[in-house]
């Protein structure tokens, strides 16, 4: 018995020492990274936890922006995003107002719900969230209900979890989540990848590389960058062939949203219910779509029906929302749903006007 006790103490001591050793390493980052919480956001919890801690320390009035790449600003620079313009606009009337951009490319409705669960203790005065019809596609849902696997921990005790969030059973996922929150899980990226198989998705890395300053080289590249690889270029200057059609087929050509069994729709409803239960002010907006481009490939009738379906869910939930789905002219888009600088500024202005009219941030 004494031997067994000694072995247990020795094992625990070893694990503790290894954990402390791992904590002497800083998370791996990339200096030119543009992601709101840098590239380790997709692998480690510490960046997300630190961001929430900073939000708790931020004085009111404070606004948190949640969403996908349209809110994040995938085809513009950081000072051309919706949250950036919204902050500028609000500060004209409230100089100390803050707008924190916690959006990230690829965020699904399940991601947004999990992110919402992290922020009640930060006591935001308002959460602004985009409702993008793109991420309610059945095909997108089949590809993955949760873009950021770090957020699995927010579903450990949820009774109704979207399919595909957990690869293992709840006990295994809980143990992995516990380990992920230790120094070993947070700081040792190689171990983290072995355990969880997580790394930033390649299209996110491609977007980051496109935004990074060009590296000096003795030999100039043989081919100059094509317009479709340049940030801030309108969709009319790009080539739209079979590859682009296939991309849009995934998100616009997969049928009507007619059943609430769709896990993405369930997550939207869960988002609304959680916000009300915890007294969180939320302004939803239906994200603009580039109908001129989409209409070249698909019937707009289906798009409008799907938008109406989501609009009805917001109305049924008695949610405060703006319908901006057809608000932005097609020439202000970089592709099918990502807006250029002026498009983002217009959306921000509409949001700011609505916020000021409601007086939710004070006067």
Radius of gyration: 22 Å
Assign the CATH superfamily. SGNH hydrolase
Q: Helix-strand pattern, N to C?
A: HHEHHEHEHHHHHHHEHHEH
- CATH architecture grouping: 3-Layer(aba) Sandwich
**Could you say how many structural domains there are in total?**
1
Mean pLDDT equals: 79
Sheet with the most strands: spatial strand order: 2-1-3-4-5
Number of strands: 5
Low-confidence stretches: 22-43, 198-208, 216-225
Q: What summary fits the major beta sheet? A: 5 strands, parallel
Our estimate of the beta-strand percent is 5-15%
Shape: globular
Structural class: alpha/beta
- Helical content, roughly? 40-55%
Distance between the termini: 69 Å
Question: What's the CATH C level?
Answer: Alpha Beta
Individual helix count: 15
CATH fold call: Rossmann fold
Signal peptide: 1-22
InterPro entries: SGNH_hydro_sf (IPR036514)
Organism: Tumebacillus amylolyticus
GO molecular function, one term: hydrolase activity
Explain this structure to me?
This protein is α/β, with parallel strands linked by helices and 363 residues long. The chain has one domain: SGNH hydrolase (Rossmann fold), CATH 3.40.50. It has 15 helices and five strands. Strands 2-1-3-4-5 form a five-stranded parallel beta sheet, sandwiched between helices. It is globular, with a radius of gyration of 22 Å. It starts with a helix and ends in a 5-residue tail after the last helix. This is SGNH/GDSL hydrolase family protein. InterPro entries: SGNH_hydro_sf (IPR036514). GO terms for molecular function: hydrolase activity. Residues 1-22 form the signal peptide.
């Amino acid at each position: 018995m004494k031997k067994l006790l000694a072995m247990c103490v020795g094992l625990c001591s070893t694990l503790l020492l290894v954990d402390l050793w791992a904590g002497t390493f800083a998370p791996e980052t990339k200096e030119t990274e543009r992601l709101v919480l840098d590239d380790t956001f997709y692998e480690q919890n510490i960046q997300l936890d630190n961001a929430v801690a900073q939000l708790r320390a931020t004085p009111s009035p404070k606004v948190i922006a949640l969403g996908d790449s349209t809110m994040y600003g995938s085809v513009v620079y950081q000072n051309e995003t919706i949250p950036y313009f919204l902050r500028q606009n609000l500060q004209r009337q409230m100089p100390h107002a803050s707008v924190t951009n916690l959006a990230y490319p690829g965020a699904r409705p399940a991601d947004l719900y999990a992110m919402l669960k992290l922020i009640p203790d930060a006591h935001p005065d308002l959460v602004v969230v985009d409702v993008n019809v793109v991420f309610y596609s059945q095909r997108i849902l089949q590809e993955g209900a949760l873009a950021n696997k770090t957020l699995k921990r927010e579903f450990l005790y949820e009774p109704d979890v979207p399919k595909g969030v957990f690869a293992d059973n709840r006990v295994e996922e809980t143990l992995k989540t516990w380990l992920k929150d230790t120094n070993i899980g947070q700081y040792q990226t190689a171990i983290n990848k072995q355990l969880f198989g997580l790394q930033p998705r390649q299209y996110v890395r491609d977007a980051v590389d496109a935004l990074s300053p060009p590296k000096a080289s003795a030999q100039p590249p043989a081919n100059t960058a094509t317009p479709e690889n340049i940030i801030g270029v309108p969709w009319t200057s790009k080539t739209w062939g079979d590859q682009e059609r296939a991309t849009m087929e995934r998100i616009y050509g997969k049928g009507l949203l007619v059943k609430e069994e769709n896990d993405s729709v369930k997550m939207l409803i869960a988002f609304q219910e959680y916000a009300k239960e915890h007294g969180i002010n939320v302004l939803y907006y239906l994200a603009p779509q580039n109908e001129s481009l989409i209409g070249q490939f698909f019937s707009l009738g289906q798009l409008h029906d799907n938008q109406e379906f989501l609009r009805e869910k917001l109305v049924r939930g008695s949610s405060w929302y703006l319908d901006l789905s057809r608000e932005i002219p097609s020439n202000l888009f970089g592709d099918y749903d990502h807006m250029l600088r002026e498009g983002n500024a217009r959306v921000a202005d509409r949001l700011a006007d609505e916020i000021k009219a409601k007086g939710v941030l004070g006067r």
